[in-house]
Amino acid sequence: MSTLNALITLVVFPGGLAILLTGMIYEWVDRKLVARLQNRMGPRWYQPLADTVKLLAKEEVLPNGVHAQMFYALPVIALAGALTATLYVPVFGLRPAYSFNGDLIVTVYLLSVLTLCMGLAGANTLNRYALIGATRTLTQLFSYEAPFLLALLGPALVAGSWQIGEIADYAERHWLILTQPVGFLVAIIGLMGKLELPPFDAPEAETEIVAGALTEYSGRGLALFRLGKGVELVIGLTLVAAFYLGGVANPLLFFAKTLLLLAGMAAMQTLLTRLRIDQTVGLWWRYGALLVLAQYLAVIVWQGVMA
Amino acid sequence: MEFNKTWQDMLEQLKTWARVNSPWAIHFNSGSCNGCDIEILATLTPRYDMERFGLKLQGSPRHADVLICTGPVTRQARDRLIRIYEQMPDPKFVIAVGSCALSGGAFQGCYNILGGIDQVLPVDVYVPGCPPRPEAIIDGVVKLLEQLKAGYQPAARRSGVLRPVPVPVTDAG
């Protein structure tokens, strides 16, 4: 019976199918909101599903000069990493399916697997645009990863635990956005950097470098990478909402808070223009990381004073 | 709803549905005067918003389903045009936009012009006009999508010619 339960958790709900579909719905919400803010009609509600099915049904071209096994394996690993991360976060307002001490760090690294795979996928091909895209993807990874992790460790510090479930429990009783506003801002902007949304879309800037690291991918590989991004969008929003916006104790709160965050992100995508890659790095290391560290210091001093 | 359908038919229907609802396009200019290109860009602006049909402009030919071509094919651009076409994964469709893409238009008979797009690639939809209005381009795309719904096969597959026959270079006269 426990095997069956585990299988359902992995393949159907809350991991697997349910999170893939939610990822597609969130992608549609994002695209529709951006379209409405640009005074357009925007895509229809089943657009991401149609895109995915079409890509899965298309021919997958194996370009000359690539390592074939890696070319086929990387999208699968990327999606697997994102799906595994689902099991450790409170998606749909449920308790995390699996939990152990220190799973926050594991989750953040599982989320980075997708970006790493995209970087490798770009570096694997001979295409120059893909190579530049891969360089930019990895540069961006090194710039946002540390501030994003630091921003998620702020709640861990005050909750006194490194377990996502326990931090979420603590955050349900305290709205950490009020006590740690800098951490919230850095986390939400870090999430946009992670998902390569505008203004941090230099790694896939289609006006400069065709399609970035994924230039040579067609059909199935591209579909899996896109699905992985959708899953990562949901997980990232869940993490930020659970840690900073008073927790996601039930499905209603979960959808309300994550969609609110998504609306904010869509507005920022519309408002801001693309940053150059050096500006992105400068933004994270000169301001993001330093501000979060300063906030850490304040939290630690405050805890010391209160103790 | 029929119940005697095999699952292959259902899968085929699903694929067709997805293809009709998500045509990603790439735009190539093989020697146009830029008039048609400006109209294509106007088609993609918020006013006409092609995303409501699921059409997205892609940077990479590997991601695209529809090749939107403008202009007559010059001898210089011919190899690039064929190359872009061959980089696209199957099934792929070609839309020729503008009088020049149809027949060579005002440039017909020039020493450096091969003629319309169909001299080089199998074309699925012709959109006439000099330049065609955005409404005409949208009409062309929607006609292609409706044909697809009715079970249309790409021109490339019907003719069986994937690699176009090279055009012999004649003396410039």
Summarize the SSE layout with pairings:
The complex is a heterodimer of chains A (307) and B (173).
Chain A: H1 2-11, H2 17-37, H3 47-57, H4 68-86, H5 103-124, H6 128-159, H7 164-173, H8 176-179, H9 181-194, H10 220-244, H11 251-271, H12 277-306
Helix pairs in contact in A: 2-10, 2-11, 3-10, 4-5, 4-10, 5-6, 6-9, 6-12, 9-10, 9-12, 10-11
Chain B: H1 7-21, E1 24-29, H2 35-44, E2 56-57, E3 66-70, E4 73-74, H3 75-87, E5 93-97, H4 99-103, E6 113-115, E7 125-127, H5 134-149, H6 155-159
Parallel strand pairs in B: 1-2, 1-3, 3-5, 5-7
Antiparallel strand pairs in B: 4-6
Order of helices and strands of chain A: HHHHHHHHHHHH
| Estimated helix fraction of chain B | 25-40%
Largest interface: chains, residues each: A-B, 34 and 23 residues
CATH architecture of chain B: 3-Layer(aba) Sandwich
Number of helices in the DSSP assignment of chain A: 12
User: Can you count the beta strands of chain A?
Assistant: 0
* Low-confidence runs of chain A: none
Main beta-sheet annotation of chain A:
none
Strand fraction of chain A: under 5%
What is the percent of helical residues of chain A? over 70%
What kind of assembly state do the chains in view correspond to? heterodimer
**What is the string of helix and strand elements of chain B?**
HEHEEEHEHEEHH
What is the terminal-to-terminal distance of chain A? 47 Å
Describe this structure in words.
Chain A contains twelve helices and no strands. Chain A is an all-alpha fold and 307 residues long. Chain A has one domain. In chain A, α2 packs across α11, α4 packs antiparallel against α5 and α6 packs parallel to α12. Chain A is globular, with a radius of gyration of 19 Å. Chain B has one domain: Rossmann fold (3-Layer(aba) Sandwich). Chain B has six helices and seven strands. In chain B, strands 2-1-3-5-7 form a five-stranded parallel sheet, sandwiched between helices. In chain B, β1, α2 and β2 form a beta-alpha-beta unit. Chain B is globular. About 4% of the residues of chain B have low confidence. Classes of the chains: A mainly alpha (307), B alpha/beta (173).
